Amino acid sequence: MRFSPFLVALSAVLTVSCTQVQTTCITDVADLPLKKTDLPDMGSWENAPLRANAQYVLFGANSNRERRNRLGDYYFVDWYDAEPQKPVRLVMRYTQAATGTKELTRTVEYKEPRAEAASHKEKFFFSGPERARQGDVMTWRMELYCGGKMVDSRQSYLWE
Q1: CATH number of 22-155
Q2: Which of 10, 62, 95, 137 is most exposed by smallest CB count within 10 Å?
Q3: pLDDT tens column, 9-33
Q4: Residue 21: per-residue pLDDT
Q5: Is residue 151 a contact partner of residue 145, using CB atoms and an 8 Å limit?
Q6: How far is residue 33's CA from residue 15's CA, in Å, rounded to a whole number?
Q7: What is the pLDDT of residues 56-67, one digit of tens each?
Q8: Residue ranges per structural domain of the chain
């Protein structure tokens, strides 16, 4: 049986493209705002993710005051840690409606070595009295540092 050179080259390309080397990186950033305490209507399948997010955020809030305090902006960051022996820092830079162009930051650090290379999830919440004073998050940028060096970043379309 003879194989054509085209098939041999195609199989080599497919083999190389399927073997992906994992690096420390941000895999996803979900920006999930909650602007009202009413759960979205389940009239269509498009509302299902919004309803699930609202249920997650409002879970355990028994009074109307507790529910109002949970209104705000929620950011869920998925990232992959390929080098668990190195310290890692995830920095969120952002501006809010009342701060104008003043850049604020929040940071999550992993200083100790982790058990193994794995995926992680982090959350940044902007709600309650802080959000009432500072307003909605207007722009944001996520930066991932591994061993003191920035290895990946994601940003909102309005970030400059």
Answers
A1: 2.60.40
A2: 62
A3: 545 444 443 335 589 999 999 988 8
A4: 52
A5: yes
A6: 41
A7: 888 988 998 998
A8: 22-155
pTM of the shown model: 0.78
- The number of beta carbons lying within 10 Å of the beta carbon of residue 143 is 18
| HEC assignment per residue over 92-114 | EEEEEHHHCCCCEEEEEEECCCC
Q: Which distant-in-sequence residues (6+ apart) come within 8 Å of 70 by Cβ?
A: 34, 37, 57, 58, 61, 127, 128
Which amino acid does the sequence have at 52? Answer: A
Helix, strand or coil for residue 158? coil
Q: Which residues share a beta bridge with 49? A: none
Which burial class, exposed, middle or buried, applies to 99 when counting CB atoms under 10 A from its CB (0-12, 13-18, 19+)? middle
Element (H, E) at 130: helix 128-134
User: Residue 34 is encoded by which pair of tokens?
Assistant: 């909650």
For 154, the 3-state DSSP assignment is: strand
**Beta carbons of 145 and 89 less than 8 angstroms apart:** yes
Q: 3-class SS at 3?
A: coil
At 107, which amino acid appears? Answer: T
Give the helix/strand (H/E) hosting 53. Answer: helix 48-58
